[in-house]
Amino acid sequence: MHSHDERPYSYCPMCGGGLEPRTLKATEPERLVCVRCGFVFYLDPKVAVGTIIRDEDSRIVLVRRAIEPGYGKWVFPGGYVDRGEQVHTAAVREARKKPASNALSVAAGSAS
Ligand SMILES: [Zn+2]
Description:
Order of helices and strands: EEEEEEEHE
Strand content: 25-35%
Shape: elongated
Radius of gyration: 18 Å
Helix content: under 10%
CATH architecture of the largest domain: Alpha-Beta Complex
Bound molecules: zinc ion
Distance between the termini: 46 Å
Largest sheet: 3 strands, antiparallel
Low-confidence stretches: none
Mean pLDDT: 84
CATH topology of the largest domain: Nucleoside Triphosphate Pyrophosphohydrolase
Number of domains: 2
Number of helices: 1
């Protein structure tokens, strides 16, 4: 990685205001945020992970999506890999952040 990759953009693509690194979520890397309009400039490769988790009865764990697209649909736990994050680490993080109240176990092969 080249040294200029750490902060490759200085200005907001929406309004031209200055970008500064800010911590938005404690568990995620700093994001470039516009000091004028609040635009969050995500700099990540959009690599995603999905997990297939079996419970003690060999059922598959599904979770209900809490955001669009697909709000309310049942999916395998997963999400985006952050810049610089190991794929395996992202898979574990995404699988752990789903609340148990939004999880469902189904018998493998029985979904229709
Ligand atoms: Zn802006």
